[in-house]
């Protein structure tokens, strides 16, 4: 992500891991709310809470389940965030090198930034699917009672539904990450080009630019990928039943099913908590990642006191 000399893969991986965990510790409750809103249908289910808005969801979770429920299932995403965010940034840098060599381009441009981000997103999806599935099962109030935590959830899913269930929703997850990363990294490149230059490498200016470009990138990525995120949540929250045909199977048919039964707006369920998380969260990611890369660069060059 930096315009300076690239660091080896291991440093990109470590910086991405620290950035990812930092972001999730701050923003996780919004992810719980987003998932709850996405997986509910239009018609309330007897005996279960039905949420009319983000605020309503927050209030009902805290009132009926306790504040700690907003952090239920956080073990899975914390374990996921290190490889997920590390893969995101490292794959983006590595695919950038591949495409620059492939097309004979010396520097990144807007088109290559979008292509590189999309490919990095597809790469990232293969890492995160099992973690995402377990996280969603633990976040859903109706299903959470079946599991006594992360390890128990993994064991029961594998034993009752088969090990391949951990990759249920892979296709929709790939689409979700392709769209988000293409928008995120494409916007970061464009916004950085539009912002005033920082030739003296003033730290406060760099942080401001990274926070702004990352937040805009996160917002645009969220606008692009929310429909795929909705159907991914539905697909992964559908337990396999022997001989049964799941209502939500493949991504694009699932998009049609949700739109037909609940209206087009249902494809943007959970958008507000999602964009509130991934807009600022995208800025946090970029600021922490860039800061860590600068730290590692200074350490390697012997510039740290």
TrEMBL record:
Gene3D superfamilies: Mitochondrial carrier domain
Keywords: Membrane, Mitochondrion, Mitochondrion inner membrane, Repeat, Transmembrane, Transmembrane helix, Transport
Example of a GO biological process term: mitochondrial transport
Gene Ontology cellular component list: mitochondrial inner membrane
Pfam families named among the record's database cross-references: Mito_carr
A GO MF label: dicarboxylic acid transmembrane transporter activity
UniProt keyword Transmembrane helix, yes or no: yes
Annotated PROSITE patterns: SOLCAR
Start-end of each Solcar repeat: 7-98, 108-194, 205-295
Residues that span the membrane, as ranges: 9-30, 278-296
Protein's cellular compartments: Mitochondrion inner membrane
Family: Belongs to the mitochondrial carrier (TC 2.A.29) family.
Name of the protein in question: Mitochondrial 2-oxodicarboxylate carrier 2
Taxonomic lineage of the native organism: Eukaryota, Fungi, Dikarya, Ascomycota, Pezizomycotina
